[in-house]
Specification:
275 residues, four-stranded antiparallel β-sheet, alpha+beta, single chain, elongated, Immunoglobulin-like, five-stranded antiparallel β-sheet
């Protein structure tokens, strides 16, 4: 009886992971946090703090983004002695391991690796894709939640906006949230706000709306420059007329007629002896 129970436990330990996790959806994985319940394989919870070196996702996708319908590698890496078993879930695109389950890739049974890569086909109709991973050292061991990794299509912005109703984004970015739909992200242009409902709109007029605040100041600067120019012209005209009158008065006092040129600024005043 005890032998049968031990055999059953061993069978559960191999079958429960990772096959159990490959049926999780991207929406479920997106909300998974360190410290959440694990509750299989004699592991109560995920580790409270998942260091990047314990369970880390990476891809071969270049910084400029992925091309449509192109194969890339998606990898899980760990520094745990003996490696880890793992499951990767993607929000869009297709892993090539199991055609019937294209959103998932996982190690088999007691298989563990320090570095394992999988082939993934990029989507045709999505701006982005997110990858989520769970790593386990073994039965009764440690479980980790990897930091999610989001990649974007080539030609799209490669950054995620910080949602705010009043703070304008400084560059084009994807208006997303942790629990949002990464496959159908909206792109906010520089100067707009990625609102908390994940819509791109004009900012609400708060102090943080830099782009909107700059426009009135810019217009005011132009007006001030124009006013300064006009005042300078008026001042120069007044000074010039004052000098003309002054020279005329001096000429009358000395019995001379002083001509002041109107157009040639390089010629000097000429004193003409009045007859």
């Amino acid at each position: 009886m005890c032998g049968a129970r031990i055999l059953a436990l061993r069978l559960i330990s191999t079958l429960a992971y990772p096959q159990f996790w490959q049926f999780k959806t991207a929406e479920f994985m997106r909300k998974l946090q360190p410290g959440d319940p694990f509750e299989i394989m004699s592991i109560d919870r995920f580790q409270n703090k998942s260091f990047r070196t314990n369970c880390r996702l990476s891809t071969s996708i270049p910084p400029t983004g992925f091309e449509v319908n192109t194969l890339y590698s998606v990898s899980v890496e760990t520094n745990e002695p003996g490696g880890v078993g793992h499951v990767i879930i993607s929000s869009t695109g297709a892993f090539q391991q199991e055609p019937s389950r294209p959103s998932a890739a996982c190690t088999m049974y007691a298989e563990k690796h320090s570095l394992r890569s999988w082939q993934w086909m990029s989507p045709t109709d999505a701006n982005s894709s997110s990858f989520f991973a769970v790593c386990v050292t073994g039965y009764g061991g440690l479980a980790y939640v990897a930091d999610a990794l989001t990649v974007f299509r080539d030609g799209q912005p490669q950054e995620i906006c910080s949602p705010s109703n009043s703070t304008a984004v400084l560059a084009d970015c994807h208006c997303l949230a942790v629990d949002g739909d990464f496959g159908n992200s909206k792109i906010c242009s520089a100067g707009a706000c990625c609102w908390e409902d994940l819509q791109c709109r004009h900012c609400s007029g708060g102090l943080g709306c830099l782009a909107k605040a700059e426009r009135p100041w810019r217009a005011l600067n132009y007006v001030l420059v124009l006013v300064f120019f006009v005042l300078s012209c008026v001042h120069a005209t007044v000074v010039w007329n004052h000098k003309r009158r002054r020279f005329g008065q001096l000429g009358e006092e000395h019995g001379q007629q002083i001509e002041i040129p109107h157009s040639d600024s390089h010629s000097s005043c000429r004193a003409v002896q009045s007859r």
